[in-house]
Amino acid sequence: MIASREIPAERGLEVPLRVDYVADDPAEPTSMVYCTDIEGTELRVAVQEPSATESSLETGKWYRFDRVVRSRSLGAQLLFPSGNSGVERIEAPEPQTHPPLAELDTPWLVQLGASDERIAVTVQTRPTDETGGIRVEDPETYEIAAVCFAYCDRSSDATVYHREEPDARDEQLLLEHVVEDLSEAEGATLVTRGYDRFPLEMLYQRLAQASGGDVVGTGAERVLNGCFHATPESVPVRSEADAVVEAARQLGIEVDPVLLSDYDIGIDRADWRGEVDTMPLSDVSDPRMTDGDYATLVERYLGPEDGSVDSAQLAHCLKAYASADLGLLRELVAHGTMDRLGCPRLSERRLKR
Asked: Residue 204 and which of 122, 143, 299, 308 are 20 to 30 A apart at CA?
């Protein structure tokens, strides 16, 4: 019996997996099954024909999945293709131990706990037109506003790269700093917040867009390919919590929001928030900062000078919000609750132009 990390790139294999949770969404053509393999690696398996498979799966039981392949998406590590009905109930196999990373030859999948370096990453974007519409696959619809790093296994402070000017060169300088940092962290696992690939996908797209110019070198986007990727989205699923923040609090990790009231930026939040029903908060006076607040305020910051705005205070506010998730991600990694999470390599098959 093989472990998930041993699945080759060119073909599928039989893989024994314990089913831990089935995310059933009838509206989706692909279902997500949370599993554990014989090395204890926690995985997400995308099932392309869920109606034909889900009904036979029991949580806590082991199955042999036939012709499982590597997933091409960051949303899952493995794929159970359509037309594949090869699922067989088996007895629990003998557990195996995930080897040290140094013993693996260019692995495509590693456990987070086995990674040499774990880096928490946040990415903020800004739309390029007034409609505010962003399409991840179209880098012309957005720019990078901020990228923040925090090394999970060091006591160093976070690194915050934030836009200071609206022109294209300012973004390129920011991206060049990101490339320099990631070039020194090849093989690291990048930990991002959220349930999707979007933060790193958008960073990749903008790096590709800027590469070959006066500031960002040709092929700069490939700096991501040598890294692995992890998100904490399986933590609430496996702890039966509704969200990552709730799961963190169950683990004793405090999560404090960024408060607009802590920054004397010179303008009242009610002036830009508008109607209450357009907000994810109960009242426009709520001091908790939201994505919508950041989107509005970053445009004020990068726009023409406004005498009513304290630029220094606003800069502190924006940088605090852009880097706010780093503390949560570092704490989750330090706690060890994500140690067995399977982290796929960010190859070109996963991040595409």
From this structure: 299
